[in-house]
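question for whoever is on the cluster today: can someone run the full assembly for these? two chains, 831 residues total. i dont have access anymore since they changed the login thing
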Amino acid sequence: MRKKSGKRLYLAALLLFLSGVGYLVISGISENSVYFLNVSEALALPAEKLQAARLFGTVGEEGIARLENRPGVRFQLEDKENTSRTLWVEYEGPVPDTFKAGAEVIVEGRLEPQSSFRAQTLMTKCPSKYRKENRS
Amino acid sequence: MTIYAFASALIRCGFFFSCATALVILTELLLLEKTGREGPASPIGARLSTLLRYDAGRAVILFSAAVLTTASAILLLAFVTCDFVVEYVAQYSDLTLPLFYRITAFWAGQAGSMLFWALAVSLGGAAFAMSKTYRSLSLRTRQWFCLLFTSVMAFFHMLLSVWVNPFVLLDFTPADGMGLNPLLQDPGMIFHPPLLLLGYGGFALPACLALAQNLGTRTGIQAGGDEDKAVQAAIRPIVLVSWSLLSTGIILGAWWAYMELGWGGYWAWDPVENASLLPWFAATAYLHTSVIERRRGKLRRVNIFLLCLITVCAFFATYLVRSGVVQSLHAFGDSGIGAPLLAFALLFLFIAAVAPLACARNGETLDEVTSREGLLMMASWLLLAVGAIILIATLWPVILNGLRGISLYLPALLSAKIPQTPMGLEASFYNRTCLPLLALLSVLLLFCPGRVWKDKPGRVAFLHPRILYAVLALAGIGAICLWAAGIRHPVALLAAACSIAGIFGIILHFAAKPSRLAEKSFLAAHVTHLGLLMVILGVAFSGPYQQKYTLELGRGQVGAAGRYRVTVNELYEGESRIGADGRPGYRFLEAELLISSDKGARVGKLSPQRRFYAKFERQSYAEAATIFSPGEEIYAVLLGVDEESQTASLAVNVNPLVNWLWFGGALMCIFPLVLLRRRARLPDDIAQTARPPAE
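^ ran it for u. tokens below:
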């Protein structure tokens, strides 16, 4: 008899615990979801939808400019497959060491009305293979 | 035939022999199963039995270890002698690299790390196959062990000969290699990958052994029987050491990210970081449920499953990292290794889930939820839940993608909710889901140290009830004080108050009876928990209460970073040379910063650098500098120096209590090892602590 109630107590505790965890996860998913997009996918979406997005792409060769009087950079983000599709990104903050033309980067932020993407974070991928510099 | 072709051939031989042996043993076991008796059922069976009497499985395990050792030695030799005809050597080293880093370049890439992982697993297996424990096992258990272990080794050999062969040769010999990534030329990064791999690999042998014992004695393992004791005594130290190595690897990785990457944090919830946490949470949950089995003989089947789950997670983590299935900061080239890793992980998971079911139930149901068993159980639930959340969140883009693919077949209500564009979860998702659960762990730890195994009839028993009341009171008072001090983040407040009270609780338990310092199980468990509480405290403060500033300052100019003043004393340019012949290593820019408090008191001097490596001139690398402090640590990175105006741009962060994380982490990694020497005393220990089973 005692054992049975013990088992039920475990089940009750487990249910309580799982519902708590479930609540955390579901509320987290509904509030912390962001778009994970390539540049071409981002361009296909209307601007007002891109209020919170993480974009993946490569840094375009042309038009890289450091911001004046403050750390930051403005550059064109190219689609990895279709390099003709680009999006201007403006990022204010410390620029990572490995940022350069051709680097694969991830930016998080939102699309401004005048269609430049304002990034709060800029991360460069760290490749495990390093190519000799003069090759590229 | 070159020495490298020889190494490749050896690895292929290893694959062939492992496969063949596994098949032979499997046939033999199936024949045994069919006839139901030991001994040959047919002429083929007779021949097979003769083969097995010479313990072919063991011979192949030893052979495989010898093969991998030889192959590793050959690869190491290639690195030491700078033989760039080997593509792997050319890709990860060059002539200017110091010998130490040339040796460690062994595991800088995918093929080398796989070889290292396989080597670690095979050496562990070989050591076990030579041990007394192995010889004491029954024939069936030994056969099952050899079957499982040689299958694992066959898989490694297959990976190394098909997808990630480190001995691929170039058709010409380059004059120089491409050099090692400067980010990897750092002690933190040098030891992080191998420790992680040793941690991953270490759980394979215990998993095979536990499964083998389970499959070998299907009628139910005699808990406390000779074989059971021997197996448990063999598994435990391996698990403890592997857990320590895995934890050290993870903490070292976080520390490296903090000191070397220069982005100011230590954990970004990137898929690569998350991957290493999956086996860690499974392993930590296992450590807790296995205590219940060791002390009370319960939960055998759960433990076998969890032990296997660790290895499954290790393979799955490698799949996540290497296959490119999720977008990550780390771009490892996809070498086609993803699919086989996933297939192997799933197969192992299937065996791990099915095999324990074949084993007869033994052991009683657990004591009440509030008992010590209940506490251990809840800790495991929490740990597994965090692991599951991390798994789901990391795979969320993939899961959504899959759901979109089958949305036609789903009920309309559900399919309408699936977003049509790819979505994923940002880092704050992990903070809001995982951190509250980790804070709950600190709540459990308030009750843990004093909880005895068995209650007296009618009352809940604690070793020192007064200490418990004091600790609970302290948690309450601590929470009020922290609230008054401006800590308003609810999870941080709960975690900080409970970890402070928990740390005191553990110290009080040792103070109340100093002889406990000599009780190894008490010492190991509770100092490890002390370390965890320090980590929780460190995260609770350094996460939400980090202050970040960016400053542009010329020589002699003063900037403000919170309640600190930053003065640029000097800007330097220099060159570091390495080796006796003084080859240039890297050029650097350095800013010498003086930090003082806003009242003018001197706090210290910082010299962050920006480095330019000869082979990687187009990029520069930050070398962060910190003023060590148990309270607020000041952390500075030199972002760049403007040539014309001679102004430095700096990132200066104030990280409260961040060093508690590293110190607590070190305690967690070291103290489980205290338990290693308890093995010899185990039988007495059981006699002392075993009480009659619950009524």
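summary bc i know u wont read the tokens: Confidence is low (pLDDT under 50) at residues 128-136 of chain A. Chain A touches chain B through 52 residues (CB under 8 Å).
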